[in-house]
């Protein structure tokens, strides 16, 4: 029998069985210490965001930047016995570094919004790094408020809230898997996917749509009379995602329900050629807080990333984890921005 992986390598179990990602490729816990995220890295992010604000403005678009905060940032008191300084959370430090920068105009303070609501309903799944519907809806409303766009007020009446047994990306690191009862996230919506790139289509044809990460590209159209007529392009990761059928709540589904047209590109680097072609009204850069240490290249081409990801992904063997009884989920440490992770060279 193959022994179960040691959860202590990446995961910490806190109060009431709350699981926290603490290590992985991005050395999550170290980012809350000293020196933590390097000052040079924060300086580079300050310059990157200022550049994005200016270039998007020249295209007639508003750029916004949102970090999906880690559980350690929002619920430090639940990580009992774990030594770290939540005041050095990467999102808090980056916000301070943006002071007096043009990039500050783009900043969406999700960490502040989540901390303000942490005593209410759970914002994160207990066995996962990702949000509950309540947490996702909070991020959705916070981002829309920065855009000056009203949220849809009827989402709850159109959501299937049936709770189902669920084991998240952290819970599956244990043997046996840690499980919880998770409220449903499926939303009845007029939004329809009108484009998916070859990477996504081929992975879905293999029953591995949940494995389609870096390089995934999907476009959604919503002809509902109540949809905002403007166009949004998201450069993001698993907190946004490319499907409304994930067991974790994702931003793209909510935004596609709100805007006439939403484009999702799985990369936290910006494809400027794509933006010049699409000419959106809003551009959202979304990424997990832990990826702040991974500065994206200045120029990427989404289809180049997709081609390289296809070469890698389609050669991977299908394992028991890919079965229908245990649908694949984005790993908690999946590379979100750097094309080097897919052996790509930026264009």
Strand line-up in the sheet with most strands: 4-3-11-9-10-8-7
How many discrete domains? 1
The geometry reads as globular
Which stretches of 5+ consecutive residues score pLDDT under 50? Answer: 1-5, 317-347
**How much of the sequence is in beta strands?**
15-25%
Biggest sheet statistics:
7 strands, mixed
Subcellular location: Periplasm
Pfam families: ALGX
Main location: periplasm
Domain AlgX/AlgJ SGNH hydrolase-like: 38-178
3D structure, described in words:
The protein is α/β, with parallel strands linked by helices and 347 residues long. The chain has one domain. It is 25% helix and 16% strand. Strand 9, helix 7 and strand 10 form a beta-alpha-beta unit. The longest helix is centred in the N-terminal third of the chain and has 20 residues. The N terminus and C terminus are likely disordered. It is found in: Periplasm.
Q: Which descriptors apply to this entry?
A:
alpha/beta, disordered C terminus, 347 residues, two-stranded antiparallel sheet, 11 strands, 9 helices
TL;DR?
The chain has 347 residues and is of the alpha/beta class. 25% of the residues lie in helices and 16% in strands.
Write the layout of secondary structure elements.
Layout: E1 11-13, E2 19-21, H1 39-58, E3 62-68, H2 71-74, H3 90-97, E4 107-108, H4 110-116, H5 133-147, E5 164-166, E6 180-182, E7 192-196, H6 198-205, E8 217-221, E9 228-236, H7 251-256, E10 259-266, H8 272-278, E11 282-288, H9 302-313
Parallel strand pairs: 3-4, 3-11, 9-10, 9-11
Antiparallel strand pairs: 1-2, 5-6, 7-8, 8-10
Main location: periplasm
Region (Disordered): 317-347
Subcellular location: Periplasm
């Amino acid at each position: 029998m193959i022994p179960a992986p040691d959860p202590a390598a990446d995961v910490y179990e806190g109060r009431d069985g709350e699981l926290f990602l603490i290590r992985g490729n991005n050395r999550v816990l170290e980012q809350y210490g000293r020196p933590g995220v390097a000052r040079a890295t924060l300086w580079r992010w300050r310059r990157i965001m200022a550049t994005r604000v200016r270039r998007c403005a020249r295209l007639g678009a508003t750029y916004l930047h949102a970090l999906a905060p880690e559980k350690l940032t929002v619920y430090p008191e639940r990580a009992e016995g774990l030594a770290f300084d939540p005041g050095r959370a990467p999102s808090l430090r980056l916000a301070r570094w943006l002071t007096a920068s043009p990039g500050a105009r783009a900043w969406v303070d999700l960490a502040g919004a989540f901390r303000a609501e942490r005593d209410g309903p759970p914002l994160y799944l207990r066995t996962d790094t990702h949000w509950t519907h309540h947490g996702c809806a909070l991020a959705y409303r916070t981002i829309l408020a920065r855009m000056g766009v009203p949220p849809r007020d009827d989402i709850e009446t159109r959501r299937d809230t049936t709770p189902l047994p669920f084991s998240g990306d952290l819970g599956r690191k244990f043997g046996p898997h840690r499980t919880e009862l998770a409220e449903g996230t499926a939303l009845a919506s007029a939004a329809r996917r009108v484009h998916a790139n070859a990477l996504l289509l081929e992975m879905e044809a293999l029953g591995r749509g949940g494995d389609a990460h870096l390089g995934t590209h999907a476009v959604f159209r919503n002809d509902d009379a109540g949809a905002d007529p403007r166009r949004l392009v998201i450069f993001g990761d698993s907190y946004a995602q490319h499907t409304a059928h994930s067991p974790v709540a994702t931003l793209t589904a909510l935004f596609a329900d709100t805007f006439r047209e939403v484009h999702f590109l799985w990369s936290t680097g910006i494809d400027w050629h794509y933006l010049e072609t699409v000419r959106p009204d809003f551009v959202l850069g979304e990424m997990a807080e832990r990826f702040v240490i991974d500065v994206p290249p200045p120029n990427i081409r989404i289809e180049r990333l997709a081609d390289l990801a296809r070469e890698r992904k389609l050669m991977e063997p299908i394992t028991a984890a890919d079965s229908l009884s245990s649908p694949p989920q984005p790993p908690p440490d999946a590379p979100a921005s750097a094309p080097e992770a897919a052996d790509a060279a930026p264009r």
